[in-house]
Amino acid sequence: MAGQDIETLIKQMAKLPSLGSRSARRIVLQLLDKRDEQLLPLIDSLSRVAQNIKTCEICGNFDTISPCPICSSPTRDNGVICVVRDVADLWAMERVSQFHGKYHVLGGILSAMDGVVPEDLNIDSLEARIALGDVRELILALPATIDGQITAHYLKSRFKNENLSITTLAQGIPMGAELDYMDEGTIQLALNSRKSV
After folding, report:
1. Spelled out in words, what is the top-level CATH class assigned to the domain 4-52?
2. Burial 153-187 (b: 16+ CB within 10 A, else e)
3. CA-to-CA distance for 168 and 196, rounded, in angstroms?
4. Between the CA of residue 197 and those of 15, 44, 144, 159, what are the distances in Å?
5. Pick the CATH number of 73-196 from 3.40.1360.10, 3.10.20.310, 3.40.50.720, 1.20.1600.10
6. Which of 139, 134, 141, 127 is nearest to 180 (CA)?
7. Strands 101-105 and 77-84, sheet pairing
8. Contact criterion met (CB below 8 Å) for 138 and 164
9. What angle do CA 106, 109, 111 make, to 5 degrees?
10. What is each CA distance from 57 to 9, 69, 101, 105, 163, in whole angstroms?
11. Where are the domains of the chain?
12. What letter does residue 40 receive in the DSSP assignment?
């Protein structure tokens, strides 16, 4: 039987997405077995991330500086904002290297089942960005799920009186799929085939 500290570590690992208690236990045993090569460097990396990573004050991305390099880049198009659910989706879009605008991370999507309402999302900050008058297009790159569609419909209604085009990614992304699990070709095709909503 593992000691208290090890059991606590296993329970913390098991809270991570896609890890159950068995997977967490195997990972912890691997880290303990390879303490110098894996555990200590992991601890060092986690400590540096905890101390240095910030949330971008403009888009919500994670980086060591705020505004992040995407928001502060003079070569990115300020007139096109891609709205994503979370940072994982932003990173998935960036892997494709086809989008040259800016991003906005909502921090989730509307969900009656989970009790997520508009006030829980970063929608007011998106509205403030649109109010500056530079935005021509909002690309709603939200999950192809019912909650994703409800969120897209809500955003379309909220910003319908603004002078901007509102598009969504093409439905080449399967219903129920998440951007973080899509390959680059699928994301690129969906981005290039976006349509008005």
Report:
1. mainly alpha
2. ebbbeebeeeebebbbbeebbeeeebbbebeeebb
3. 6
4. 37, 46, 14, 12
5. 3.40.1360.10
6. 141
7. parallel
8. yes
9. 150
10. 32, 12, 17, 11, 24
11. 4-52, 73-196
12. H
d(CA 172, CA 195): 12
Q: Which two tokens stand for residue 62?
A: 């994670």
Q: Give every strand in the sheet of 195-196, ordered side by side.
A: 101-105, 77-84, 137-141, 165-168, 195-196
Q: What pLDDT does 173 receive?
A: 62
Span 51-110, pLDDT tens digits: 999 999 999 999 999 999 999 999 999 999 999 999 999 999 999 888 999 999 999 999
Q: For the segment 90-99, what is each residue's pLDDT rounded down to a tens digit?
A: 999 999 888 9
Q: Is the pTM of this model over 0.85?
A: no
What gap in Å lies between CA 83 and CA 98, rounded to an integer? 15
